[in-house]
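Purpose: get a first structural picture of the assembly so the mutagenesis plan has something to point at.
Setup: two entries, given in the order below. No constraints added.
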Amino acid sequence: MSGPMLSIEGVETRYGKIVALRGVDMQVNEGEIVTLIGANGAGKSTLMMTICGNPRASEGRILFEGRDITRMPTHDIMKLRIAQSPEGRRIFPRMTVYENLQMGAALGGYAHFDADLERMFEMFPRLKERLHQRGGTLSGGEQQMLAIARALMSRPRLLLLDEPSLGLAPLVVRQIFDVIRDLNATEGLTVFLVEQNAYHALKLAHRGYVLVNGAITLSGSGRELLENPDVKSAYLEGGA
Amino acid sequence: MTATASPGTPGVLGAAIKDALISAVLTALLLTPLVGFRATEDGGGPLILTYRFGLVAIFAGIVAVLRLVLNLTLWRPGRTRVKRPPSPALVAFTDRIGTAAKPAFFVLLVIYPVLAVLASGGLGPSRYWIDIGIYILTYVMLGWGLNIVVGLAGLLDLGYVAFYAVGAYTFALLSTSVPVSDFFAGALGADFWRLWSFWVCLPACGLLAAMWGVILGFPVLRLRGDYLAIVTLAFGEIIRLVLINWVDLTNGGAGISSIPPITFFGIPFSSGDDGFAALFGLTFDPMHRNIFLYFIILGLAGLTAVATIRLRRMPVGRAWEALREDEIACRSLGINTTLTKLTAFSIGAMFGGFAGAFFAVRIRFVSPESFTFLESAVILAIVVLGGLGSQIGVAVSAILLIGGMEMLRNLTFLKSDWLLGPDFDPSLYRMLIFGFAMVAVMAWRPRGLVSSRLATIFLKQRKKVSADLVAEGHG
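Result (structure tokens, whole complex):
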């Protein structure tokens, strides 16, 4: 497969008259962890949701493995084995952890369900303890783990993570980022990570993009961006 | 319990009695003008004043006793609530009862007509009880049908009666249609349509209702909550208004009568030689038909229950439940929410259509008056009171609400002169009782009567998801 796995070309997204994204160009190559950082309201989550077709891009195109997915219905995009852990986790609060995980495997037809479940328990032992508990009774960190595990149950090729560190204790954030790094290193999972926690995200990612007011202003390797004075002053002041 | 003052303490008891007396006097004072005096018309003549002080005294007595009891128990000063965990023996016992309850309940339902006949002493006198059984089971079935839409998929549908009407009118129109009857008379014999119409039409009624479910589903795909409720309410009213005004087809408000009666799979329940009684060597009794109707609605309700249980374990059922929880998450997991919603609407509607066909064949007359908003409200109330998504809960609340309202008719002692007078019709107070029941259940059991939910899928051992994890009234 030549060319990037996910390619976003000149995408513009609007909410009514408000333009949230203005001509965003970016690529995610297979086997990479790519992060998108930016301030509140820069359009990070909008870009994430636009990839999934909800809302739709009004201009430009989004290609996944060379295939135009800009106008595809959301559930068909997911069938291409893109999985998303959406902003705010959005687990099913009244269903048990087990049922949540099963919903994640719905696309794959449960063929590898038991094996995948064991894999999730190895990655997130806490989920095993909480298996028959309702999703809504989990702590924030456990819910985030559940959201990621649920996304992984579909055996995705590309994992979209929207602010997995939101509202979590630093220790839990590190735990979650370690899992992402492991998945990428051992299984070659491609990850596109949207984060406000710029320091951790850039340390984890191979490459990064900076989004300001709906447009990409900077891009480069994680290390380059960490050392860039503009990034430092805007996103890293005050430390991690 | 660690009470600072026991009920025997004179201070507490004295205060309670004082409070009870004051409440009784206040009640009597308030009710004397409201209830004690009554102006009745005497055959077109002048108004006559009658007195009902006995009733006032009874109300005052009720208030006094209730306040006394409450003051000594629940409202006692210094009372601390102790929540004791249920003892393991009790849990084991209730579990055993729980596993035995379902088969026992089922057996009871099957032998109910026998019990009714034995208890009332003969086929004829058992009619009342059989009819109540049919009536309740119809609502159990409707409740289970609506439960798919509201309880599982979380789509608030206030127009469910529309599908009930579609089913009933489909059967009424097809079974009384002369061209259809002539067509089958030519092909399969003159009596075919009269004898077999119900069995042929039943699937058609379900399918048509399901189709209308999809037709309702499409415009409301983007709606949720309050907006969805309003649109479905309007849909129910539109169907009813069409039935009233499309006089050429539906005969308007006059309704459709002379619907052919139910047959025992082609054998009529008649006194003739080819009737059910003669063929089975029984003495003819019109009650045979009613008992057969009972078993049909039992079968239809059972079909609804089994189908729902099966569907819940299938991917589509789990998608319904996930959809109720979070639509965006559903989409991000690759679930086609459009399809999921439409299947919920159409399958729920299909069972409503079956129930409608049964209604038409039982009453043998349909008119738009049977399909008012009140019916939708009653069915929805049954589902909500029973606990959204709980099958047993829906059955229990249907029995309590429908059976309870029916029992109200039997409170004839209220008609005595010193109470409410012979003009008093207890059944008119159904809606009042209904309202009280709703308020009471929502106050004490905000998640419905049966609020624990079995996880549909489980790893090693099935565990109950306890009540506080299930839908609450503010969903």
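Chain A has ten helices and ten strands.
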